Amino acid sequence: MKRIYGLAILLGLVLVACHPSPDTNVNNPAGGLWLSQAELNTLGAVPSYVVTNANKTINNTDGAEIICSNDFNNSQNVLAAGIVAAKNDSAAARTAVRNAIADVIGSEDSCSDNRQLGISRKLPGYVWGADLANLRVVDPTLNNQFSDWIWYLLNVNDGQSGCGTTGGDGGPGIIGCHLHRSHNWGTVAGVARVVGNHYIAVNDPDQAHRERSVGDVIFRADRTDAKRVVQGQFDTSVYNGFGDRHADNKHACVPSTFASSGEPVNGPGECPKGSLGLSWDGGIPEDLDRGTRTPGTCTGTIDGHAWGAGNYATGEIYALYRFHKTRHEDDDANAIRAWANDGGERVLSFFNRLSFACGKAGNYPEGDDQPWPFLVNNLYGTAYPEDSASATGKVYSYTDYMPQMP
Question: How far, CA to CA in Å, does 83 sit from each of 27, 130, 350?
Answer without folding.
Answer: 13, 10, 32
